[in-house]
Amino acid sequence: MKAPTDVQIIHQGGEPAFAVIPYEQYLELLAHEKGEAYVPHEVVGLQIKKGLSLIAAWRVYKGLNQKQLADRMGVTQPAIAQIEKAGVKAQAKTLQKVADALGVRLDQITK
C-alpha cells in the first residue's frame, strides 16, 4: 500500500473526529481486513495496457526498475527479467522473496 500522504483530518470540537482517505486506499484497507488479495487498478492497468506480468506491473507501480528489485532480493537483474516473463513458474520461496522486496503479500503477486 502506498503511504497515505493525502489524508484529510476533520475535527469536531477541536478534536480529530474523521479521517478522509483516497478511495483506492479505502478499498485496499477493506481487502486487507477481509484477508483478500488486493491489486490496485493501476497495477491491473499496467498488465492490460503494457502487457506486463503481474510481478512486473507491481514493480513498475512501486517505482522500481529491474536492477533495484534485484538488489533488494540479492539476485541479478537477468534473474528478475526471467521471473517477470509471462508464464514462468518461479519457486514458492523465490516468489516470497519478490513479495517481500516489493512490500506486498504473496497472494498479491500470484493471483
TrEMBL record:
Gene3D superfamilies: lambda repressor-like DNA-binding domains. Coiled coil: none annotated. Residues 55-109 form the HTH cro/C1-type domain. PROSITE patterns: HTH_CROC1 (PS50943). Signal peptide: none annotated. One of its GO terms (molecular function) is DNA binding. This is Transcriptional regulator. It comes from Saccharospirillum salsuginis.
